[in-house]
Design a protein that fits this description.
The chain is an alpha/beta fold. It is built from six helices and eight strands. It starts with 5 loop residues before the first strand and ends with a helix.
């Protein structure tokens, strides 16, 4: 068994396509009209067709469950946050947060209220801590990563 990809059901596939292309710079690698696949390894599916696939009414498909997210990593989070500000219609769950292990993230909704998280990779976190003068042992303690992993990031 091998997991292949996630698929998001959307109301307006063209609107969602534009969102993921414009906000994230993703490229479409397969376009079947009512289903498209991005180079990031996930797909969008038109809600009306999805309802037919699962033998359901469109009204049975609901959004904003807040029970999962699409997770992206960005090496230059501050620059990405500035880019996000150019999109007036993005609804944020929260601004940039830093968690106890040092990773900074931001969360917002896509046009169909799927949660999107964009965060720094832990390699970037370790590099940031190192540039701030933390030792490898201090970084390992803060991030909860093994010393060898921290060394590999530096």
């Amino acid at each position: 068994m091998k997991f292949e990809a996630a698929m998001l059901v959307v109301d307006d596939i063209n609107r969602s396509r534009a969102f993921y292309c414009d906000v994230f710079g993703l490229e479409v690698v397969m376009d079947f009209g009512e289903n498209i696949t991005f180079d990031a390894g996930f797909s969008l599916q038109d809600k009306a067709l999805w309802a037919k696939f699962i033998d359901a009414e469109e009204t049975a498909i609901v959004y904003r469950g807040n029970d999962m997210e699409m997770y992206f990593e960005e090496a230059q989070l501050d620059k990405f946050v500035e880019h996000l500000k150019t999109f007036a219609d993005i609804e944020y769950l929260h601004g940039v947060k830093e968690y106890p292990w040092g990773q900074r993230v931001i969360r917002f909704y896509d046009p169909d209220y799927h949660i999107i998280e964009v965060g720094e990779s832990m390699a970037v976190v370790c590099q940031r801590f190192h540039s701030q003068g933390m030792t490898i042992d201090e970084i390992a303690e803060r991030t909860m990563f093994p010393v060898e992993a921290v060394k590999s990031f530096l």
